[in-house]
Amino acid sequence: MAAHGTPIPMTTRKSGPLRGIAEVPGDKSISHRALILGALSVGETHVSGLLEGQDVLDTARAMTAFGAEVIRLGDGEWRVHGVGVGGFAEPENVIDCGNAGTGVRLIMGAMASTPISATFTGDASLRSRPMGRVTDPLALFGAQAYGRAGGRLPLTLVGAREAVPVRYRTPMASAQVKSAVLLAGLNARGQTVVIEEKPTRDHTERMLAGFGAEIITETTDAGRIITLTGQPELIGQDLVVPRDPSSAAFPVCAALIVEGSDIVVPNIGLNPTRAGLFLTLQEMGADLGFENMREAGGEPVADLHARYSPDMKGIAVPPERAASMIDEYPILAVVAANATGQTLMRGIGELRVKESDRIDAMARGLAACGVGVDEDPSSLSVDGMGPGGVPGGATVSTHLDHRVAMSFLCLGLAAKQPVKVDDGGPVATSFPVFETLMAGLGAAIERNNR
Ligand code: S3P
């Protein structure tokens, strides 16, 4: 499935039970970080289970452009020979991060404290997204950004000559901003401190510690205070990437709404900063089981068992949970449409600056499929139509957004009439095997001629 280029319209229709083992790909957040930290290390990093989605492949290519050696050894098996902290070379050409906000923002952080320049761009979705949230704190290190209006890509970043450490309170709950600051702090002499009011995914902190950096997280009433000591020698590691809970969410939620389903997703990451969706689904009455809870590669993992759950009720999702399930609201909205009663999702304004404006994309698509919705700047409510009660029968615009596309393709599996998406191509950014995996479980999913 191509991530860029000619749109690939796709349709799903009401399906029989989904059954089997869903081997979803590696975690996207962890995969980006594995390549970037591998590139900033001394010696070799070996990664297994790397997500080979377009977003991560674009980061791999970028790390090569900055001078690291990045080699694919086999399926999900990669080796990175790093250049060490401060060792990035100046890329010879523009860095194209495709659709990947995480890729571009983390890479900007990783180069901002090295005296080189790089120009970044991406696809139409990425070029419309705000970069000031990253370039503002990077300026405090001494880096300078020259972008389009609103800090949009294409953007040239001139790294700091003598980076000074920074103390920064993130103005929004964003792991990308936090991570960009920490990565820039690697090559600043002294201690860089990031304060975040609400905890966001902590893969960067865990992985930095694993590569040998001195990094301490304190949990206080004011939030998390993360202190990184600059200029460590990072040492290459052997990393195992768990399966992505954000990708697992799609077959899991499809199983909850398709009659008779029973699936297992083995070995998924269950870092508490990522697991909010599963808690929410359980509160709604979903039949989820977590088996073989264990630790792998510094992250908690388990096998997740999901069964058809016709008794789910709409709930008010606590807004303080938003950061731990920020990528999962689109598919939660689909589950909500198949539950009984209203589901209210508040405190989700960040969804407006994802790969698309996800509040708007979900509200319009659900409304087109006959579901009652309401939105305001930072919330979305969905009127549940009961199990199998969604009329469907619409074509939905996905706005270059992989998660919007997958959400509506899951909706179609339980709707009365088929649901078509205008472009399933972006699914390849995070879940390149989505179509074959879902079909293998029993989903009626097909590509359409335009
Ligand atoms: C990510 C952080 C989140 C999330 C994105 C991945 C990361 O973005 O939406 O898919 O890997 O750090 P924000 O930091 O913008 O919330």
Give your account of this protein's structure.
With 450 residues, the chain is an alpha/beta fold. It has two domains: 10-26 and 242-447, Enolpyruvate transferase domain (UDP-n-acetylglucosamine1-carboxyvinyl-transferase, Chain); 28-240, Enolpyruvate transferase domain (UDP-n-acetylglucosamine1-carboxyvinyl-transferase, Chain). 29% of the residues lie in helices and 27% in strands. The chain has 13 helices and 24 strands. The chain has helices at 28-39, 54-65, 101-111, 124-127, 132-141, 175-185, 203-210, 245-257, 276-284, 329-337, 358-368, 402-412, 434-441; strands spanning 10-13, 19-21, 44-48, 69-74, 77-81, 95-96, 117-121, 144-148, 152-158, 167-169, 191-196, 215-220, 223-229, 238-240, 262-269, 287-296, 299-307, 316-317, 340-346, 373-376, 379-385, 395-396, 419-421, 444-447. The strands form six sheets. Strands 22-23-1-24 form a four-stranded mixed sheet, covered by helices on one side. Strands 2-15-17-16 form a four-stranded mixed sheet. The chain has a four-stranded mixed sheet with strand order 4-5-3-14, covered by helices on one side. Strand 18, helix 10 (329-337) and strand 19 form a beta-alpha-beta unit. Helix 8 (245-257) packs parallel to helix 12 (402-412). The protein is globular. The mean pLDDT is 97. Shikimate-3-phosphate (S3P) binds at residues 29, 102, 174-176, 179, 201, 326-327, 350.
